[in-house]
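Hi P.,

Sorry for the delay on this. The queue was packed all week, but I finally got your sequence through. Input first:
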Amino acid sequence: MRLRIIAFINFSFLCIFFLFSCISTSHNKNKAGVESAMKKYDNLILKLDADSISLLFTPNGNLGNIAIGRDSIKRFLSSFKNIRVLSQSSTTSSVTISGDSAIQKGSYFQTDLIAEKDTIKVKGDYETVWQWLRQKGWLIKKMTTNPKN
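Then the structure:
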């Protein structure tokens, strides 16, 4: 009898844990979740954390046709050794969600220090195609930028 009670408690715990994980993950499958994922991207760009940034992409993610796949994205971002990002921000103009995909459009602004000497300001528009993965949330399938002077 005691074994049955323990088994029941374990089973109940697993059911509650599974239900909670489904609810908490699907809770962010909305515009606010997309914008939150982009803010995470902005914060990692500020740190220029190539490893973590590449993990925000789907395994076959596309960074403006410059780098495709997480390893390629990581290598590309790691090549900016003499750049320090001083500021990074993005503003969303629209988010369209359809099923497990979202398209986010907006603008970005970045200030960089090159070789600890020159400061440059970069701005433009972006379009990000997001893919919803049940256990991971929103990941970048494709990101393109259109720099402006």
